[in-house]
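By convention, each integer encodes one residue's backbone shape. The lines below illustrate.
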Amino acid sequence: MVRRSRSLAFRLVAGAALWIIAALAIGGIIISALFRDSVERNFDARLSVHVDSLIAVTTADISNRLVISRTLPDPRFNIPYSGWYWQVSDPRGAPQVRSRSLWDRALVPPQSDAVGVMQTGEIAGPDGELLRIRFIDVTLPDLPVHSPPVRFAVAARVSELKTELRPFNLALVWSLGVLGLGLGVAVAIQVRVGLQPLRRVRAALNNIRQGRAEHLEGEWPTEVQPLVKELDALLEHNADVLDRARTHVGNLAHALKTPLAVLTNEVSRKGGPRADAIDRQVEAMHRWIDHYLARARAAATGTVLGARTAVLQVVEDLKRTLLRIHADKALTIGIAAVDGTAAFRGEHQDLEEMLGNLMDNACKWAEAEVNISVTAEAERLTIVIDDDGPGLAPGQREEAMGRGKRLDESSPGSGLGVAIVADIAALYGGELKLEESPAGGLRTVLLLPLAAG
């Protein structure tokens, strides 16, 4: 739930849904109230029509008793306790004439002193049900002058009013529910379409990270364009900073190696009892400078966005170079690439340095053959290098990986190649393993991130 609450799409849809629910609920209440008012007015109008009809058919006989010249046409007035009733009573409320539906009961309208004014109220009916009543006090012309007014009343069950309201309210709820659902779907679609540029930005950044592009390309909406512009500027600034860092690292390497070379030549030329000790210290300084400068340069390039290097091309180039360097050994270097288009997600010079160290070590110690295989699967690039040399014991492999100490002084080099390769691979999220080769020598397994195709 916490993760959803951080989603911009979830917030937009949830906020819109709350407003839609509130608006539809308020609208539904207002519509229902308006319809109820309309039904009540229509209900009262029907009662009023019956009251007017009752007045029209009521007369006085020769003894001034009220009589009904003809019954009202609605048959419900003739069915006992049907829920529809009429009554004609004197001013004191005593019924003079009443509908058959009242049977032996009487209506008791609310008290009123107004004459000639139609009034509305609610009373209890014959069987206890709630009735809505319309009544009016009228002075009949058939009665003697100064006779008190006669009260005409017609009533009907309130439940009939509710029966008319119930289907409408049910239909209103279903209609508003469907409308709300439709609006919710429309909002979700709108939010998804509206946030599409942000997904395009993410995809474009992934292309840059995978090395398929260098900038955020394409047309962007006006609201997203400033973000795209700032991201492009940040990428360019990052590339400039890394380029300057690589330049400074290279300058530092040359600045340190030249004095050390001069010092080595001076010690070799002058000789003396301390020459060997100084020479060993100078060589150690060479090794550590190579080690830490390589780590610094790799750290500056390990997170470069957009870097992509074809593996097979680097392996082929190094093969040609190493065959010339080790021409005296008549080596055979075999290459087996399961995927010839596999690419390393990183800098060309870093891959060249890692493979150069590992392949050079294999050529130094191999008797006659070095084999290299390249495979790519599950976003992982695997490069395996086998030689048929003497190999390394398990303890020596750990020492070569951890300390970078020269294990054999008979071959030239700094002795830090394996450690440097392990450091550079780790900076890219990769790994270096040393194992026993099926050919009897050493197998180095280099795991690196695979650039997407």
The radius of gyration is 50 Å.
